[in-house]
Amino acid sequence: MNNKLNLDKLDLQIIQHMMEDAEISYADLGKKLFVSGGTIHVRIKKLQKDGIVKGTKLNTDLKLLGYDVIAFIGIYLKESSLYDSVAKELYKLKEVVRLNYTTGNYSMFAEIICKDISELRVVLHEKLQKIKGIERTETLISLEESFSRNVRVLD
């Protein structure tokens, strides 16, 4: 448990249940955890205030929406001090959905989602190459996502 934020077992149970089903009502979650819906509401508000809960997201099937290409881009920077400025430029690209500052071969690792290979080519050759500070990139194309899940906060 995280003593700095004073999370107790109920907080962790709320987080775990909400990560599994964010649509559950506070009343129904309260029944599962043997507390009132009001208690759940107060706890969620506290978790939001503390920055632990950062809203909810709609989980969609991107392929059904026409996005067929997921690629991972290893980015080599000319200098590691350029990370912040490059990250700001990458944030402007709608196709970049995740960015990590990494150790190892790459300075940064980005996930990109595109409708097709032609769009990916445009991102790689026309958008990424124009960003000052990027020395070179390596692209890995995902053939299939086997699974995606949240971490379990309770055993």
Describe what you observe in this structure.
The protein is α+β, with helices and mostly antiparallel strands and about 160 residues long. The chain folds into two domains: about 60 residues, Orthogonal Bundle (Arc Repressor Mutant, subunit A); about 70 residues, Alpha-Beta Plaits, CATH 3.30.70. It has a four-stranded antiparallel β-sheet. Helix 2 packs across helix 3. It is elongated, with a radius of gyration of 20 Å.
Comma- or semicolon-separated keywords:
155 residues; alpha+beta; Arc Repressor Mutant, subunit A; Alpha-Beta Plaits; four-stranded antiparallel sheet; 5 helices; 4 strands; 19% strand; elongated
Write the layout of secondary structure elements.
Elements lengths: L8 H12 L5 H8 L3 H13 L19 E9 L5 H9 L4 E6 L6 E7 L2 H11 L6 E8 L14
Antiparallel strand pairs: 1-3, 1-4, 2-3
Helix pairs in contact: 2-3
